[in-house]
């Protein structure tokens, strides 16, 4: 049994080394990625539940490495956060998404709110709001067409500073959505203190919504609470007509998911926009 134990330890260390090397590699590759223009934004449509009208897009980052191929954000965002590279990458995302939204409007293709995911480190940085304001100014996108998706955990650090920043954002006309709502361990206390606009119900509640009574109950409760607080609600991960119909019945305001469209690169999105008919 002892020998087996040692082998297990060795095996474990070897695995750890491989993992660590992989992370070191990713780290080095990430540094190059911006310069080499290996990032691209995909855009996923958001629809108004009642009318089926398109109301927004969520920008989702994609990384195509010339040798390693496609690397998903769940893999590289955590490393970008650890290394601080998320600051530079995040700023690129903001500028790219805002520029593209402006371009959609100028070409008369769509008037939609562009939602962008913001990392905690990025949001906490001094001057974040000012830099965002400058960027929107520079690309001439009106702030009301821009939305930040923040996670609950972010709201808990440094609460006074967070409130201050959110008030500044609100005053500029930029809207705030809470991403992955219901998955954090945070208290609901912040909901009454913070100037928010929208809650985004995490897709883990939407997955089995139609068959799981508990998921359905939680979803209905989130929607009711949000409306009482005068917040909008969007559901993510809507994959089927049955989910969409149920969410509509439960007066969820907006829907997003593969049922409507996968995240699309700009050219494909524009084909989608031209052909889209609200149903
Ligand atoms: P998220 O913000 O919760 O984004 C939702 C994820 O669900 C996206 O994965 C999206 O492609 C996927 N999705 C959309 N509709 C459906 C559906 O109907 N079914 C299923 N199963 N999945 C769906 P993605 O694009 O791989 O992004 C993963 C996470 O990476 C995001 O989760 C977000 O936390 C992070 N991320 C992506 N882009 C950025 C970015 O620009 N900045 C930061 N800080 N984080 C980002
Ligand atoms: Ca999001
Ligand atoms: Ca989510
Ligand atoms: Ca997330």
From TrEMBL:
Keyword list (alphabetical) reads: c-di-GMP
Q: Which GO terms describe its biological process?
A: cellular response to nitric oxide
Which stretch of the full-length chain is present here?
585 to 863 of 863
Per the UniProt record, the source organism is Rheinheimera salexigens
Q: What is this protein called?
A: cyclic-guanylate-specific phosphodiesterase
Highest taxon of source: Bacteria
Does the entry feature the keyword Transferase, yes or no? no
User: Domain EAL, which positions?
Assistant: 23-277
Query: Could you cite one Gene Ontology molecular function of this protein?
Result: cyclic-guanylate-specific phosphodiesterase activity
């Amino acid at each position: 049994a002892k020998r087996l134990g040692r082998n297990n330890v060795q095996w474990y260390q070897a695995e750890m080394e491989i993992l660590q090397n992989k992370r070191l590699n990713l780290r080095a590759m990430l540094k190059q990625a911006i310069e080499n223009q290996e990032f691209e934004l995909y855009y996923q449509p958001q629809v108004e539940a009642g009318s089926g009208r398109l109301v927004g897009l969520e920008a989702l980052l994609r990384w195509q490495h010339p040798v390693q191929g496609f690397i998903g954000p769940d893999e590289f965002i955590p490393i970008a956060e650890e290394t601080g590279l998320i600051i530079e990458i995040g700023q690129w995302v903001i500028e790219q998404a805002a520029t593209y939204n402006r371009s959609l409007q100028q070409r008369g293709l769509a008037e939609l709110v562009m939602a962008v995911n913001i990392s905690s480190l990025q949001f906490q940085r001094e001057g974040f709001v000012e830099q965002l304001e400058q960027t929107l100014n520079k690309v001439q996108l009106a702030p009301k067409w821009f939305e930040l998706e923040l996670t609950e955990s972010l709201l808990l650090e440094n609460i006074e500073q967070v409130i201050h920043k959110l008030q500044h954002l609100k005053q500029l006309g930029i809207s705030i959505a809470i991403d992955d709502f219901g998955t954090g361990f945070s208290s609901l206390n912040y909901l009454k203190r913070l100037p928010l606009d929208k809650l985004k119900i995490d897709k883990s509640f939407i997955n089995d919504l139609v068959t799981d009574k508990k998921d359905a109950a939680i979803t209905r409760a989130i929607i009711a609470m949000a409306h009482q607080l005068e917040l909008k609600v969007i559901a993510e991960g809507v994959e089927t007509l049955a989910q969409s119909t149920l969410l509509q019945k439960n007066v969820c305001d907006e829907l997003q998911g593969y049922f409507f469209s996968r995240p699309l690169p700009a050219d494909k999105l524009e084909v989608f926009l031209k052909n889209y008919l609200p149903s």
